[in-house]
Amino acid sequence: MPTDHCHLFRSYRRKGRVESAFDVTRPSYDLLVGLHALSAVVGFGAVGVSGTYAARARSAAEPRQDPGLRRYFHPSTNWAERSLLLTPVLGAMVLWAGDRSAASQPWPWIGLGCWVLAAAIATGRCWPAERKIQTWLAAAPDCGERPLPGLVEFRDACRVVQRGASAISLCFLAAVVAMIWQPR
């Protein structure tokens, strides 16, 4: 076969490049994209669950008597929520390892802006309020005092988590729309 008929397009020329472990045609790139999506779903899902439990705690007449609330808000770090912070890092890796021309388009930056806003709300408002909820629920059980000491502050912290989770969920929705729609 003559060499001038090797390619359908004469302008096609193979460019020498350094092979990446995350070439977009390889399974490693698919794995990276999957981890990016998984960290987003787990992180934002956990934030949504926290908002739901905070709403439940806020409306409970005797929050310390609810074993489900005490179990969910036991004093510890919610690592599933913290995976929210991993999402933009993995997204940057996907962008760097894949089609780098997307970096000049607005959609990855819209997504990054949504993640930054979500992380700011989570670290600045939600997680400190969750610690207050955990501390209050872990304190000595009901001693018969009415109204319960610190109940107003507890309900305020629940409201902060509830509203913060709603705002973070909107950020997640906006980022997903930007990632799928990919405005140019």
Please give a structural write-up:
The chain is mostly helical. 65% of the residues lie in helices and 0% in strands. The protein has one domain. The chain is built from six helices and no strands. It is elongated and about 65 Å long.
CA-CA gap between termini: 42 Å
> How would you describe the shape?
elongated
Mean of the pLDDT scores?
86
Which structural class do you get from the secondary structure elements? mainly alpha
Task: State the helicity in percent bands.
Answer: 55-70%
| Number of domain units | 1
> Count of DSSP helices?
6
Radius of gyration: 24 Å
**DSSP strand content:** under 5%
Largest sheet: none
- Count of strand segments: 0
Poorly predicted ranges: 5-21
Could you give the order of the helices and strands? HHHHHH
Layout of strands and helices, then pairs:
Layout lengths: L26 H33 L7 H6 L6 H4 L3 H12 L8 H33 L12 H31 L3
